[in-house]
Amino acid sequence: MGQLYINDEFCKNLEQLKDYFNDCLSDNDVYTDLLESARCGMMSQFLRDLDEEQLADTIDSIDGDFCDSDYMSQLIATITGDKYRIEKPHYSKCFKIEKVTCNETNNRIIISVRIKILEHVNENFVMKIVGISTVGDFVINTYKIEQNTLLKEFNLPDYLDDFQGYIEINGEKIEELNGVKQVIPISENISITMIKVYGGEFWMGATDKQAERSGWLDAAPRHKVVLSDYYIGQTVVTQELWKFVMGKNPSHFRHPQKPVENISWYECEEFVEKLNQITGKHFRLPTEAEWEYAARGGRLSKNFIYAGSDKLDDVAWYKKNSKQKTHKVGNKAPNELQLYDMSGNVWEWCLDWYSEYSNRKQINPHGPHYSYLTTDRVVRGGSAACSELGCEVFARGHSKPEETGIGLGVRLVME
Questions:
Q1: pTM of this prediction?
Q2: CB 217 within 8 Å of CB 266
Q3: What single string gives the DSSP state of each residue in 124-151?
């Protein structure tokens, strides 16, 4: 059989088609599923490939009143008709999304899309930018695609305080749009990319069972935290940026695009002060709660064990794959917010004093003013020398603020 287009995927063989059909039959809402299958053009091919005995068995296998009504025979006749013999091209093979940016400038959302046509299809190409909100999807703008660079800009609707969405071409979802960012120029060749994290409520820390399994007993009790919006660095601070601001590079594993490391908490505070003078912005270290919320993916969280995946090799440089050294930032897959290296590579200094968690709900916590337990500050995320357990999103570390080490780096927050 030819390839059939089903719910944004190809159905490559009859067995795959049968599995999908059986799923429809096992659903309580059989009527809706069968109609949707008819619209997709998949049912006609499936039924054509069955002989009369198999077709009778298929109809008999449907529970409920459908078997006793005329509707079933009418439906079978409808979906086996030529009207529903549909084959669609897979548009993601016809186009290459070369660049998508979603930036915020002066409270205005600007989305730019650059598309290259790879393969000719004999129909008009229509691209839609679609936004996602709590009340459903809505089309923000529609464009006809030509063999030229597309650079389109539009404002975010006033009633939408968050931006998630996708690019759709002739009905097929091609590219997710999951974040707003600001690119802050520092010099002619150096900039900082800050990702907007929309605030919300989340469970911070580990359950008792998770804490016992991992050995991170200080990650419990799990507690609710509410955060406001903020920006966080897409990557940790690089050696290139640190050297430009501070005039020196203290790192052990040298490369401009590797994380700066071997830095103390006090040096990070000095770095932030100088950077704010250069840019006129208000950068600071993240609170521990801001760090964990961003690592978990914020509102887009899929509840992964690590920052962006349940498979650590996909998202992190750690003990088993790093060869005990840091690596250039952004070379692993990002998490749901398009943040890189929040698991592994280097531990990241946080603003908070290290202390025990409370089980009380907190709003925009900044940690204790001082700690009864220690004079240490919090570090999060694990490093290139850590095991899998050290890279879990709730894992906590701590170090004296004057200490340095080849596993200690920093990621910035911007207000």
A1: 0.66
A2: no
A3: --EEEEEEEETTEEEEEEEEE--SS---
Cβ density class 207-229: b for 16+ within 10 Å, e for less: eeebbeebebebbbebbebebee
Q: What is the per-residue pLDDT across 195-239, written as a single tens digit (0 to 9) for each?
A: 988 888 999 999 999 999 999 999 999 999 999 989 999 999 999
DSSP bridge pairs for 95: 117
DSSP string, 189-203: S-EEEEEEE--EEEE
For the purposes of burial, counting CB atoms within 10 Å of the CB of 302, is it exposed (0-12), middle (13-18) or buried (19 or more)? exposed
Q: What is the pLDDT of residue 350?
A: 97
Two tokens at 272? 């932030």
Polymer length of the chain:
415
List 223's β-bridge partners, or say none.
Answer: 204
Distance CA 3, CA 155 (A): 39
The contacts of residue 406 (CB under 8 Å, 6+ apart) are 251, 252, 253, 261, 262, 326
